[in-house]
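Hi V.,

Quick status before I head out on leave. The structure for the redesign project is tokenized and pasted below; the design run finished overnight.
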């Protein structure tokens, strides 16, 4: 990445097909790869991968889904729309969410890579030019060191033993740290695997939140497993967080926002945060009256506008995902106590929004 390349990131969702077709992406893809979302939606994401890395990337796509992985990173090259730009070395995060693979794509940055490595559950380096991103921790069972997160918060669960639900090496659990980082075998193009559309995996739910609002407005909810999409869309995410956990969850989100900036202080990606809290499936009135942030800089403002356009324009028009419902917040709150569900969470910040991935806690 040269000094003229913006260190931004975009959120992307692909399907479980052999082609890993784009279902959704936020508008910052134009800053990274030169494409507008409508140019890529419905097309295979693998067609952007460098030919020398195609086979291994396709194998990785298959393995990530079959092993039901979460919060994992890969470094590979993706094609820029402008031919003279060639292939861009990117860091790509991936998490399996029931029937889709969600994550983000950003320009690989050595400084950011060090932090991402300290929070990801697994790192795979495919591009030969990215060998310096092959970091390994000193047998730390948790991907977050105590110094990386907010102080005085409950210890996060160890995702190395819980979020990877399937592994061919260790059924029912994840592989060891050294096994996870074993380089993939070299594959020739003619050895590229083929497979049918893969079946659904663990029941997890993705929320995409407005990064630039103190309310944490829900701009997208991937399924009705934990909360109904109709009740969640455009409401504050904190409506669904138990009151006793709200300040803690806010601290976690503020923390990943702080991580998710680039070298110029612009909104970008910055690794994963893990936590556990009690979810209210029917929601509540969190009655947030915090002042909105001061007027953002032009670059921040642009990212905010991209997030809004991305969800209100692209989700409904160009994807197979449910369209945003803009008047849901006016619906009356459900009567009676809201069922309480302990959930494990993965938090991450990106140029166009925040991602929160939830599943029912196993403890």
């Amino acid at each position: 990445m040269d000094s003229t390349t913006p260190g931004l990131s975009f959120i992307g969702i692909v399907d479980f097909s052999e082609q890993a077709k784009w279902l959704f992406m936020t508008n910052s893809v134009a800053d990274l790869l030169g494409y507008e979302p409508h140019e890529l939606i419905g097309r295979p994401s693998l067609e952007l991968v460098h030919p020398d890395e195609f086979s291994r990337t396709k194998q990785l796509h298959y393995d990530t889904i079959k092993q039901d992985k979460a919060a994992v990173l890969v470094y590979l090259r993706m094609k820029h729309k402008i031919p003279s730009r060639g292939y861009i070395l990117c860091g790509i995060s991936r998490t399996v969410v029931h029937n889709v693979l969600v994550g983000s794509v950003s320009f690989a940055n050595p400084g950011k890579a060090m932090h991402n490595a300290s929070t990801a559950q697994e790192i795979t380096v495919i591009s030969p030019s990215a060998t310096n991103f092959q970091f390994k921790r000193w047998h730390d069972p948790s991907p977050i060191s105590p110094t990386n997160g907010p102080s005085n918060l409950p210890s996060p669960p160890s995702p190395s033993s819980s979020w990877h639900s399937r592994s061919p090496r260790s059924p029912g659990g994840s592989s060891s740290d050294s096994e996870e980082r074993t380089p993939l075998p070299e594959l020739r193009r003619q050895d590229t695997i083929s497979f049918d559309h893969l079946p659904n995996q663990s029941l997890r739910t993705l929320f995409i939140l407005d990064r630039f609002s103190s309310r944490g407005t829900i701009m997208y909810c991937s399924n009705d497993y934990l909360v109904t999409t109709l009740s969640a869309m455009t409401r504050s995410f904190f409506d669904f967080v138990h009151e006793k956990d709200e300040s803690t969850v806010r601290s976690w989100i503020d923390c990943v926002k702080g991580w998710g900036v680039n070298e110029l202080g612009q909104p970008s990606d910055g690794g994963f945060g893990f936590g556990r809290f009690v979810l209210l499936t029917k929601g509540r009135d969190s009655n947030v009256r915090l002042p909105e942030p001061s007027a953002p800089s032009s670059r921040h403002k642009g990212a905010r506008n991209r997030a809004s356009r991305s969800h209100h324009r692209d989700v409904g028009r160009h994807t197979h995902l449910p369209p945003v419902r803009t008047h849901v917040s006016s619906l009356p709150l459900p009567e009676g106590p809201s069922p309480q569900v302990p959930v494990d969470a993965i938090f991450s910040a990106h140029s166009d929004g925040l991602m929160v991935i939830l599943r029912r806690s196993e403890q």
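Above is the designed sequence. The chain is about 20% helix and 20% strand.

G. will cover questions while I'm gone.

Best,
W.
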